[in-house]
Amino acid sequence: MRQALHAEQERVLRFARSAFARYYRSDPPPPIEVSEPERREFAYWEFGKQVMTRHLAFQSVEEVRRRLAEVVPLHAYRSSAYFRYPAAPMEEKGWEGADLVFDIDADHLDLPCVEEHRYSVCPVHGAVDVREGKCAECGSELKEVEWVCERCIEGARAELVKLLNVLTDDFGIGESEVEVGFSGNRGFHVVVYSDAVRKLDQTARREVVMYLTCEGIDPSVLGLPWKGRRTRGLRRPSLEDLGWRGRIVRAVAKHLVRSGELAGWLEEPDWSAANPSFWREVISRAIAEERVRIDPVVTQDVHRLVRLPWSLNGKTGLAAARIPLERVEDFDPFEEAVALKGPPVKVRVLFAPRFRLGGEEFDAMEGPVEVKLPPAAAVYLMLKGLATLP
């Protein structure tokens, strides 16, 4: 059984790689762009390999494209850091700075929909009853699949919008210094190219994380009523204030509107209109809603590898698409990140919930069934372990 499953997985990987190859070798080539490529390290995972190939250096984006077309990687990356000698071992590269990188992943957001689409899938029988971690029908080891739904993407998008607002409003980052991208799977990346952040060390980047996530925030320092601490001498925050003062007050106002409490507070905010425990609860909720939930490890890392824009994500076959700032709120990754084209192919679907991809909607498939799917949908399910070749 194991040998048969291994052979089947090999066939799936060969099929996926051929689809990736058509993308990377297309004419015109994918619109992969990297600023200052000669100062960056490049890396990639190859299909079927267990070790990343890294410490690569290229002098131009054209060289990068040629290597991608030659190798056809499962995943492809470039460094956020700038090096004097990008191809040298890490301790000899000569670090000269790094972009400021943010990662927002739906898997880290505790979204209520996540538990709805975790599936245990048998390679023989599809979605099945589980008995001690194995298929109750045949005893096969199960694959745990974490699906990504449209609510996941919307949850990540909400965090992305908050992040961009803080970067531009509080940090003064210009729009031309920000790159936004879809990860190709379940979230978004933001890269800041500003000279003002390039030399920040890990400690400074940690402070950026703390500011965004409100870690250690003391509302009383902002003049808000908090745990009985005196705010005498501080101007009470108002709806028009900048930074976290105004952001928290506006979130408090939204809560009061939703709950119908303290009518008239919006016209003339009066912090003495309720007892301290009430304000503590409302302010705590406001901070929880407004803080930006990013992956702190990514932002603090001054050597981080970042997915190449418009490269393919080896977990889905979707492109890590660049997103213009004016398109952040309406960009549709299930449509605009679909890069694999071609005639329909026959696949054996083990299981799939209802999903939408590339302008088509696909009904749920509860058990092993042979169907014809567009290559993007076929590869999407294959890479998630939900489909094989018949």
Explain what this protein looks like in three dimensions.
With 390 residues, the chain is an alpha+beta fold. It contains 10 helices and 20 strands. The strands form 7 sheets. Strands 2-1-3-14 form a 4-stranded antiparallel sheet, with no helix packed on it.
**Percent range for helical residues?**
25-40%
SSE string, helices as H and strands as E: HEEHEEEEEEEEEHEEHHHHHEEHEEEEHE
Instruction: Characterize the overall form.
Output: globular
Q: Taking Cα atoms only, what radius of gyration do you get, to the nearest Å?
A: 24 Å
**What's the story with the biggest beta sheet?**
4 strands, antiparallel
Summed up, the helix count is 10
Strand residue content: 15-25%
Cα distance spanning the termini: 16 Å
- Strand tally is 20
- Average pLDDT rating: 90
Sheet/helix structural class: alpha+beta
Strand and helix map with partners:
Layout: H1 2-24, E1 42-46, E2 53-56, H2 61-71, E3 73-79, E4 81-83, E5 95-98, E6 100-105, E7 118-122, E8 126-127, E9 130-131, E10 134-135, E11 143-146, H3 150-169, E12 178-182, E13 187-192, H4 195-198, H5 202-213, H6 243-259, H7 276-290, H8 296-300, E14 305-307, E15 322-323, H9 333-336, E16 345-349, E17 355-357, E18 360-362, E19 369-373, H10 375-383, E20 387-388
Antiparallel strand pairs: 1-2, 1-3, 3-14, 4-5, 6-13, 7-8, 7-11, 9-10, 12-13, 12-15, 16-19, 16-20, 17-18
Helix pairs in contact: 1-10, 6-7
